[in-house]
Each structure stands twice: as C-alpha cells, then as structure tokens.
Amino acid sequence: MLGGLQGTSPLDRDPPGWSILCSALQGDSAMAEKLAPSPGGGITPLQQMLASGTGAILTSLFVTPLDVVKIRLQAQRTPFSKGKCFLYCNGLMDHLYVCQNGSSCTAWYKAPGHFTGTLDAFVKITRNEGIRSLWSGLPPTLVMAVPATVIYFTTYDQLRDYLRTRVGSWNHYIPLLAGALARLGAVTVISPLELIRTKMQSRQLSYRELRVCIQSAVAQDGWLSLWRGWGPTVLRDVPFSALYWFNYELVRSWLCRQAWLDGSTFTVSFASGAISGTVAAVLTLPFDVVKTHRQIELGNSEVHPVTASRPSKPSSTWLLMQRIRAESGTRGLFAGFLPRVIKVAPACAIMISTYEFGKSFFQKLNQEQQLRGL
C-alpha cells in the first residue's frame, strides 16, 4: 500500500508538459548533431582547397563590377592625379592601387565617361568599352586574393573539426574560435605579400630592384617592417571572421530547423551567409574605417617616402580612431555603412554557398567511389 502511494506521489510525478519539453530539447540536440559537420567533412584538405578556390573566383566575378563602377564614379567626381591612392575590392580582399604618371593613369580607372549614376555607368561601360571592362584590374589582385581565401577557409574547416574532436561535442563557440584563428593565420601570411605588391606598383620596380628594396627595408627597420599595416587589418578581419562564423552556424541551424531539413541546402547557405556577413560588417565597421585610413597612409608612404616620414600621422590605431572621432564625430567611425553592407553581404553569400556546394559535390563523389570499391 505504501509502495503504491509512493509510486503515485505528486512529488514523484513529472510536471505537466515535462515530457514534451524533453522531447523538444532532444529534437534540437539531434538536429544540431546532424547539421554539425563530421570531422573532415568526408572530403580531403585538397578538395576543401578546390572548393574554396572555386568559390573565391566566382565571388570575385560577381562582386568586382560593383567596385569597378564605384571607382569610375569616384574618378569622374575627383580625377585621379599622380600619386593618388585608392582601394580596389574584388569581393575577397581590399587592394591598394597607386596612380603613377600620365601614361599609366590613362588605364581603366581613368577612362573618360559621363555617368549620371550607378546603373548608367554599368550600361555605358558595357556598351562603349565592352563587358570585359567591368572586370578591369581583376587578374593581378586574384594572385593573392585566391590563395588567401583558400588558406582561410581550409584552415577554418580543419581547426573547427579538430576542436570539435578535442571537445567531444558540438559547441557553438567552436566556429567563433576557429574563425578568428583561421583569419589571423591568413592575414599574417598574406600581409607581407600585399606590402611587396604595393611597393612594386607604387615605385614600378623590377624584381631585382624589389629585392634590393626589401633588403634595405629589413636592414633598416627589421623583419617586422614587412608586416606594416598588419595591426589594423587584424583588428578588422579577426573580429569579423569570428562573428561571421559564429552567426553563420547559428543562422544555418535555425533555418534548417524551420524548414525541417536534415542538412543545409544552397539556398540556406546563401541566406545564412548574407545575414551573418551583414551583422559582422555592421559590428566591425569602425575597424574597417580605421583600416582604410591606414591602408591609404601606407600607400602614401610608399609614393612619398620623405613626407610620409614626418611625425604628423598617428602611428597608433587608437590615436587614429581618436582623430577620426575628433574630426568627424562618432558618425565618422561608421562612414560608408551602406556601401560596405552592399559589398559584403552578397560576397559572403556567394562565397559560402559556393563553398558548401563544392564540399557537398566532393562528399557525394567520395561516397560513390567508396560504394564502387565495395
């Protein structure tokens, strides 16, 4: 009798809805495990590199025309003169261009044109100069942008899978840490190469002259001089990458749950990339403004090394942020909000959806090859 009473005690009975809540939590956990990539993703690092390289090229092909039109409109409002520095973005990286002299300044960014707006510039450039003009200046930038993207995405996948294996379960903070470390590594590898490219373009050096120039710079300022501009780039790119991957995995999991999908589709990856890219771009916008200023200063120091050596420019990122805030107010740190979002959102969406599609393709290919071998 006591046993029967104890078995039916209110203290021992489950609260109303408890079983439903447990089932829901188990369902979310099961969905997270399904969406969480398996170690290695079923593909080799070489296949990851091929998928990211393909995504990088497609992203640059889609996004570059937007920046080419923007530069042409800028050149129409304020003609580029000798020594003028401007940034060129192919959707993957920001590259510094330096206008040297009268002959070289008749290049694509100095071609005459009377544009009334962005759409008018697209139409007139295509009609008068050919559709290939929308990708002017792209090939030289891909030499560094594609390898940097390959290093970044492949390292992220490898780090994410390694951390997941060590932790033993899927943790939402793993993408944040893996994204930050992957971007830090990619920036550290590419930063000296970008500085060398800027030296070659600004001073029109041959490879032999470039070697002498680098040796003299290292002898005078040490090896760390090759990483000038590394600080502001890391300050922008590392937080951006951490926020991007953290939000991407969360948004992707949420969209898959809403659509009752066991795995991510191209559309889900595209939407997740656009949303997470927009959020990361907005939150890191002040660092992007600082990085742009420092990159322009770096270009000016290469074109005018004597005047750039004067101590009038702040050498600290923090001092530069203070100067921008003093000159333009807090709004100055958020300048270019809309253009950055318009550029970053589609670039992130195209890159990640193409990359995920490439990985899915290789996964299916590997599975078919394993089945044939059985």
Give the topology:
Blueprint: H1 2-7, H2 18-35, H3 45-77, E1 85-89, E2 94-98, H4 118-129, H5 138-167, H6 173-203, H7 207-221, H8 230-258, H9 266-283, H10 285-303, H11 305-308, H12 317-328, H13 337-373
Antiparallel strand pairs: 1-2
Quick description:
The chain has 374 residues and is mainly α. It has 13 helices and two strands; from the N terminus they run H-H-H-E-E-H-H-H-H-H-H-H-H-H-H.
Computed over alpha carbons, the radius of gyration is: 25 Å
**Mean residue pLDDT:** 78
Largest sheet: 2 strands, antiparallel
Strand portion: under 5%
Stretches where pLDDT is under 50 for at least 5 consecutive residues are 1-39, 102-106, 307-314
Q: What structural category do the secondary elements indicate?
A: mainly alpha
Strand order of the largest sheet: 1-2
Helix content: over 70%
Distance between the termini: 62 Å
Number of E-state strands: 2
Order of helices and strands: HHHEEHHHHHHHHHH
Q: Per the principal axes of the C-alpha atoms, what is the gross shape?
A: globular
* Number of helical segments with 4 or more residues: 13
